[in-house]
Amino acid sequence: MTDVTSFTPTDTSSAAALGDGAKKATAEKTKQAKEAVAKAVQSARETATEVAQQTRTFAAEKAKVGAAWTRDKAQVAHGVAEEHPIGVALAAFAIGLGVGALLARRD
User: Fold this and answer.
1) pTM for this structure?
2) Would 4 be classed as within a structural domain?
3) Which of 47, 49, 74, 92 has an alpha carbon 20 to 30 Å from 102's alpha carbon atom?
4) How distant is the alpha carbon of residue 71 from its chain centre?
5) Distance between CA 63 and CA 76 in Å, rounded?
6) Looking at the domain assignment, is residue 7 inside a domain?
7) Is 100 exposed, middle or buried (0-12, 13-18, 19+ CB in 10 A)?
8) How many domains are contained in the chain?
9) Is residue 80 part of a domain?
């Protein structure tokens, strides 16, 4: 068996010295932990800022592309509708019939 008294200080001055050492070690560890947390928070802020900026840039670019694509497609569709109004009407009617039939079969 292990003798526990061999690990415990015998007089109060050595116990106080161990207590001071433990306090210093605890203070040092606490200081290191606070520094690590501060670095992690700073890193997280920088990462979040960078991601937000990239997202804003990406969204703005995609919005411009989408607007241009939609405008171009709308102009083409408008031109087709002006050139072939009966064809567009019949196509819309046929699509409506097809969707209606599919919906009717679903129930």
Assistant:
1) 0.41
2) no
3) 74
4) 31
5) 20
6) no
7) exposed
8) 1
9) yes
Phi, psi at 19, each rounded to 5°? -65, -40
Distance, CA of 38 to CA of 5 (rounded, Å): 42
In angstroms, the Cα distances linking 39 to 45, 52, 71 are 10, 20, 48
Provide the residue type at 102 as one letter.
L
* Lookup result for tokens 């106080």: 16
pLDDT digits (tens, 9 = 90+) for 16-66: 555 667 788 888 889 999 999 999 999 999 999 999 999 989 998 888 888
**Is the dihedral angle over the CA atoms 7, 11, 15, 17 positive or is it negative?**
negative
